Amino acid sequence: MSAVNITNVAILDNPSPFLSPFQFEISYECVVSLKDDIEWKLIYVGSAEDETYDQLLESVLVGPVNVGNYRFVLQADPPDPSKIREEDIIGVTVLLLTCSYLGQEFIRVGYYVNNDYADEQLREEPPQKVLLDKVQRNILTDKPRVTKFPINFQPEENEHGEQPTASPPPEQPSEINDPEQLPPHEQPAKSDEEKQPPPPSPSLDNSE
Question: Which compartments is it annotated to reside in (predicted)?
């Protein structure tokens, strides 16, 4: 059982120009209080053949992580075009949203991204050199790929042979700066692992 579950992901300002920032509104629930922050990363896959072209766009630590429901916006700069082979800029690639605890990645959400010219004439007759200011980025949100990895969320307790147990929810929401803890009437609907979260955000098809 994971201590943290993503309940919703809304990709803002999509589609958008290739050089515009990424904005992901992430909603998640924590069922066990954690002593350390969780780390969210956004990674742009620059080449399907060579992972050395991958770019870490943003990495943020979020905490404290008490029992409850949370929401925050992860904003990241676009990838550096100079670090992408020109033949790989136009076309389909992948964007990865990951979450880790104590250096252990426990969830990864992959999205296909289609980069192409917004102008039909440029699509039919692409210039020899890519015109970055004319390229539009479209994140395909309908079928994200979700992969979960089992990790140890309570290593210090397991070292003493104790089984981690869920902490009871606080009577009042704890004060936090980032992310926003949702009041009861704004909590996103929870869903079983086999179910999809409610619209308008894309469905998250869980896969092991």
Answer: Nucleus
The Cα 151–Cα 155 span in angstroms is: 9
Every domain of the chain and the residues it spans: 4-201
Sign of CA dihedral 83, 88, 94, 95: positive
What are the structure tokens assigned to 168, written together?
């009871």
CB 113 within 8 A of CB 171: no
Query: What DSSP state is assigned to residue 156?
Result: H
The Cα 208–Cα 198 span in angstroms is: 21
pLDDT in tens, 157-170: 655 444 444 433 33
User: Distance (Å, rounded) from C-alpha 117 to C-alpha 136?
Assistant: 6
Q: Per the structure block, which two tokens stand in for 110? A: 């992959």
List the CATH code of the domain at 4-201: 2.60.40.1490
Count of H helices and E strands in the chain? 3, 11
Residue 178 DSSP class: S
Q: What is the mean pLDDT of residues 8-26?
A: 96
Question: What are the structure tokens assigned to 182, written together?
Answer: 């949702």
- Residue-wise pLDDT for 75-133, tens only, equals 999 999 999 999 999 999 999 999 999 999 999 999 999 999 999 999 999 999 999 99
Alpha helices in 5-140 (DSSP H): 86-89, 120-124
36 with 61: CB under 8 angstroms? Answer: no
C-alpha 71 chain-centroid distance: 12
